[in-house]
Design goal:
2 copies of one chain form a homodimer. Chain A has 366 residues and is mainly β. Chain A contains 5 helices and 22 strands. In chain A, strand 14 and strand 15 form a beta hairpin. The longest helix of chain A has 9 residues. The interface between A and B is large, with 68 and 68 residues.
Chain lengths: 366, 366
């Protein structure tokens, strides 16, 4: 097929904080969490963030099979009834899109313009993946396992099905789950039905949806989504480093009530309990959340997560005084990593974990 | 509280087809349907469009009550168990946001920048509303019933809870449903849990979510969302006409596969079955869908809707030849109303039912 990026196609004009029609189309189609639902341990079904590269495939689960193929000694395939008959595990996992916060970076990559909202926590149900790979007996010399989805299309002129890979060492280190359920119900089409993986502790691109095939490879997987994107790059010729574990981050439940357009917040003076969530990658615990109140960083109270890979809750009391305030929150994890005050630059806008800032207008109590 | 629109606040720069950061924030937060799911009679749960003016209230359904108050002779209130004990009715209804298509209008109102995707069809379950209003015995002189939600905030500097109204004649004419279920499951928080109304055949603003109160009024309801917005206005001083019934409209399931950013479509030459949906307001049937193929309008085959207020399916065969094509679809209803080829202008960008156009690249079969 032809390359959709014709020579001479004008570059979108997105300078000066403005956004293109294509970016808005992506924002309309993909959906972010509602920050007010961060009060809940589990994001309400239907409000977990969604980033769909191509189209959602509508798959008939009665005929769907997962195939283990390639450099396996004992390749096999399973239908959905067989997969649901395997040992069942459920796990709350906080997933975040690698592009979350892209729109807060300058200059900005022309892609899905997330502000802050590409995060969510669901209870995922399935079966551990590692025993199935062991059962298929990888041959000596296998260096990668490719996970191939049913979703396909073009990116930068390259036609491909969505695919990602994990090395044998990563399969050993990560608690990868082969998933068919979500929040106690069957997986929804837009979340990968009938079958996906969840790679806890990593950004969402690793958690391949609409999974059809796991292929053992004796050379590194070179699929588009593995090697041509999801890499940290500082300039055009930078080969870059792969994006994988989630960076430490936190969000605030915006207090008071919003203005419809600006989403700035309005509340009356007096005591208010602020709350939010914090999380980091690879199951590393959150050890501290600080909240910027009245221009001073103050330490919040942490509430334990509902699982190793789920976000931590936090609360803090604030005596809100009349005026316009900028509130911010900043998390630190057990590795000592802390959120930056300025967005870390990346060519494609990946993994921006700058602190979350919310403008609050406090009115006098009359 | 103070007006969030301070004097001197700069007008957003949104000329030249570009969009502001606030518009993108709304697009990230609100979510559109995925056009590929238009193949299904019922929109998959979690992908029905969502337009939330303020924050989603998290309501405890065990203590929630619906109050009938104001100019009733026999006012009463009901808890959720009592409401679920009333006669049960389920109804598939196609809902569309009044702002759908706003971004295709020029000049464009600064609000949620929907392209085409603010539509969906769910199976709503609840009980007919009209008998409950009769039971509360409206007093002589009642001219309006206000439906008040639990969601509140600011719009254009005016603090208010979301509310809308219907006249006694509209209650008689419309099959308004008091709803607690959706697609065979409890109503989700973001769709109005625990209780909302569905006003079939009207744009979505009438279907008040998080319903707390039905108030009988002897003067017309003057809530912000009833009188200060959702009106068709041609210029600043135009008092305008209320937005109510949905205008005739159709959408195409984009064929082939997409480019990630532009969403332009790619497929190989040969026969392809195109399909889509068409709907109109007030339960008026769709009588014709025409599809622009190879620069000729051709008549599609209609498949019956699953209910009076649900969209109609359509299909048409196309012999796709290599090249770049613009496909469009245009519906006509039993009243003879047809979609326009140019967007009808409205100050606030309401009810744009211009034809849906999709760019398709057809590659030679190699």
């Amino acid at each position: 097929m032809r390359n959709p990026f014709e020579p001479g196609q004008p570059k979108p004009k997105t300078e000066d904080g403005l956004f293109s029609r294509h970016e808005v189309g992506l924002a309309n189609r993909n959906s972010g969490a509602l920050l007010e639902t961060l009060t809940r341990d589990i994001t309400p079904t239907g409000t977990h963030y969604l980033l769909t590269h191509f189209d959602v495939p509508m798959i008939d689960e009665t005929t769907h099979r997962l195939c283990f193929e390639g450099a396996f000694e004992a390749p096999f395939s399973l239908d959905m009834d067989e997969i649901r008959g395997l040992p069942v595990q459920s796990m709350p996992v906080t997933l975040e899109c690698a592009g979350n916060g892209r729109s807060n970076m300058s200059p900005r990559s022309h892609s899905m313009p997330w502000h802050y909202e590409a995060v969510g926590t669901s209870e995922w149900t399935g079966t551990p993946l590692a025993p199935l790979i062991t059962r298929a007996k990888p041959l000596n010399g296998v260096v990668d396992f490719a996970f191939l989805g049913a979703d396909a299309g073009f990116d930068k002129g390259v036609p491909h099905a969505f695919g990602r890979s994990l090395t044998p060492e990563e399969i050993d280190a990560l608690d990868v789950l082969l998933v068919w359920g979500m929040n106690g119900a069957p997986l929804l089409p837009q979340h990968g039905a009938p079958l996906r993986i969840i790679v806890p502790g990593w950004y969402g691109m690793a958690s391949v949806k609409w999974l059809t095939t796991i292929r053992a490879l004796t050379e590194r997987y070179d699929g588009f989504q593995q090697v041509q994107t999801y890499r940290f790059r500082k300039h055009e010729n930078d080969p870059g480093e792969p994006v994988n574990a989630i960076r430490v981050k936190s969000l605030l439940v915006p207090p008071g009530v919003p203005d419809w357009i600006t989403r700035e917040r309005w509340l009356r003076e007096g005591p208010v309990t602020l709350q939010g969530r914090a999380w980091s990658g690879n199951g590393v615990p959150i050890t501290r959340v600080e909240v910027l109140l009245d221009e001073t960083w103050q330490e919040a109270h942490l509430t334990p997560p509902v699982g190793r890979y789920a976000w931590t809750g936090w609360t803090i009391e604030w005596a809100a005084r009349p005026g316009r305030h900028m509130i911010a929150c900043r998390a630190t994890d057990a590795n000592g990593a802390t959120q930056p005050l300025e967005a870390p630059f990346d060519m494609a806008g990946f993994a921006n974990n700058v602190v979350h800032r919310v403008t609050v207008h406090v009115a006098e109590r009359t």
